[in-house]
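Protocol step 4 of 6: structure prediction from sequence.
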Amino acid sequence: MCCDSKRRFLLLYATQKGQAKAIAEEIWQQAGAHGLEADIHCISEMDKYNLETERDPVVIVISTTGTGDPPDTARKFVKKIQDTTLPPDHFAHLQYGLLGLGDSEYMFFCNGGKTVDRRLQELGAQRFYDTGLADDCVGLELVVDPWIDGLWLALKEALLLQKEKEGMNNLVDAVTSSPPPAPHVVHELNLSSEVQNLKLEDEGAKSSDVLSQKVDDVNLVAPARNTQPSLVNSVPPLSQSALNIPALPPEYIEVQFQGPHGENPHLSSLISEETTFEVPVTKAVQLTREDAIKTALLLELDISDTVFDYQPGDAFCVICPNNANEVEELLHILGLSEKGDDFICVKVKQGTKKKGASRPQYIPERSTLKFILTWCLEIRAVPKKAFLRALVECTSNAGEKRRLQELCSRQGASDYMHFIRDSNVCFLDLLRAFPSCKPSLNLLIEHLPKLQARSYSVSSSNLYQPGKLCFVFNIVEFPACPARLISRKGVCTGWLAELVAPLLHPSKNTLNTKGESFSTEKISIFPRPNNTFHLPADPSVPFIMVGPGTGVSPFIGFLQHRQKLREQHIDWEFGETWLFFGCRHQDRDYLFKQLRCFLENGTLTHLKVCFSRDSSTAEVAPPKYVQDVIRLYAKEVAKVLLEEKGYFYICGDKKHMADGVSDAVVDILSMEMEADRLEAMKILAMLREEKRYLQDVWS
């Protein structure tokens, strides 16, 4: 607890990938400059705070994960406050401000924060500061930075009002002979003057953050006239401006080298609260032709010796390493090439000023340096401004130092967005661009986030293929750009493609006695069940599937499962099934020509396909995209959704497909119901609420 209860506020964060925690820590660091103390905790640490008795203001920073869910760390908290037996004044004493993080590319934007905000309101809590909703699609800092700037005055006013309330209560008890209006009038005047002082204090605090720089230094790094700005170059007025840069984050990790002897931990120890399975890859098929724009692979895993269970529509996660060449390059730049196989001990630095500092859970206490860089840290992560600020202190060249200061400053916000965030520049790219930057190993562990397992949709049915799990993915390609001169593949998809190359291109060494290719390669996976993206419980209910490209993947599992059910239960009634599939070229990337088999055996009732890049000699050009094809079957789609109470599933790219499909469905509902667009949008919202319009999308 903070020692000065009159200047204290409670700061809670709920994070999935570290964003909310990093922002909460920034608030905690800035609090001291404003004469406040933040009592900071992860929202899951419910033994360390108690909202039922909390009297000081509460600040909550919360992200959103999955399809609008609160992060895993907030599950218990959300479950607790959603208890329906709680009275409507349960949190009537509570003052709070909430900052939600989300991505408008996804349907339920900031739903984690909105869920908590809405429930606190229902239980009587009062906002002392407007709720902020930050959008990672355009840049969290566009909302986060001004929200934090305004937080301090709001916090101080909330604390003063609290003090005012306590003082009023004391005055009522102590002063019985004074006329009733007088204390209130005096207090109002005092409050007004104190608030005015707070405004002056805040202006002073802001001005103290300005980085003073000598004119000589500015002239030294000023670019030549007409120079275009880039990752490493700036132009006036930024190159000649005084800068507001973040406070230097306190270091809190200590790394000790211990020699080459020992044993690395098992990968399963890196995954908290999940059961991991190491399973062999038994089959790999390239689904696209060599001249296709994207390369799609299907992998089959053998799960027969495990208790791994899934339903069609579920997802699972693959634990993947960083690219081995990038790890070696990073070791070289850090001057640690000879120490990659040495064991290191990671501990909290004694005397650190970071409150509640602890070794990150995903960092083993003892392992080799190469193990940490390969399996634990996301070296491809886009560096946050706090990391850039720390890197300033590790940079010797004056021009490079200044540019890093600009990129982490408030004045350089647009340059940060354009040259780092939007260009997907990672830590290794920065070290290449700023060669005099030589960070210590502890900074990497402090600032690089956890290497996340990658999630994939299941493309099979355990009923159809017992003991097998299949999934489909495109090999992700990041072309070179001015801010990043080297092209690269996705962390996981690039690794998987390399891993299964012997299965895709068998040699004499990878053939068994029957002449079949085989593999001894194994990957570690863990389940990520989907609570809603499943087949209808009633098989007689019709459903529509929309899955262009690799978005068709989960629907292969749907159809396999449905085929097996039809074989096993010939007396059951089965509803109609529709599949809308699209790709660029019929002869290059029509991923599953076996869809015709489902059509022929009656599992699939209607198959509608389109090819966006194929030329046509027809008088009327065929539709290019799935949303165009859907419009051609407006009456049938409306009948399934409105009359037959059917389901509608979408899987694939959100921005360029799912939104277009939603627009098409709204138009269909409007036309078939003879209603205006707003009414049709309400119907679609109702379908979503009833879990009959379901999406599994990505950006």
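Step 5 (inspection) to follow. The mean pLDDT is 87.
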